[in-house]
Q: What sequence folds into this?
């Protein structure tokens, strides 16, 4: 019996068999967290690219904004193209009140209407009569393994940007004729 207790043959393989499941679980968790971070980085990059593209426009139509959904899907490398969507909102501050001039979303499912107070936290401080665009993007993320502590979630990002070449972005499908056209851009209807 003493000889059997002193024999250390096979100890290394026994330790390896005990540690192997822990190493495999750790490796799988590492893959899930890397994938989530990679997806979030591509998602954020796509959002800022759409924001930059829109900031360089002076006049758009709803069809142009709808086409940006495909560009967003391509840049973010989204696998669920039907579930990703974006919303572009033109916001103005006038007499201390923030108002929504127009908003277009690319969702295939009707989204609930929202008020300026709903997006208040996403908007930086604005000067009087200052306009900006708020670009919001949404994409689902489902991890390969949900037991690592990362559940399915919806990634969303909000970017506020100003128009580069005019004081505001004009949407031909949402013209407001009561508002004076002093934005430095020729009236698109003239």
A:
């Amino acid at each position: 019996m003493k000889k059997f207790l002193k024999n250390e043959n096979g100890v290394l393989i026994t330790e390896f068999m005990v540690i192997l499941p822990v190493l495999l679980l750790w490796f799988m968790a590492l893959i899930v967290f890397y994938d989530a971070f990679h997806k979030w980085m591509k998602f954020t990059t796509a959002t800022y690219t759409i924001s930059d593209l829109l900031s360089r426009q002076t006049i758009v139509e709803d069809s142009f904004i709808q086409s940006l959904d495909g560009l967003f899907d391509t840049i973010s490398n989204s696998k669920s193209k039907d579930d990703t969507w974006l919303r572009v909102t033109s916001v103005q501050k006038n007499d201390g009140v923030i108002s929504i001039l127009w908003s277009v979303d690319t969702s295939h499912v009707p989204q609930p209407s929202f008020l300026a107070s709903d997006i208040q936290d996403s908007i930086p401080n604005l000067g009087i009569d200052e306009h900006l665009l708020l670009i919001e993007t949404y994409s689902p993320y489902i991890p390969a393994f949900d037991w690592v502590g990362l559940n399915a979630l919806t990634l969303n990002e909000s970017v506020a940007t100003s128009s580069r070449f005019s004081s505001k972005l004009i949407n031909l499908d949402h013209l407001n004729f009561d508002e004076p056209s002093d934005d430095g851009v020729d009236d698109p209807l003239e």
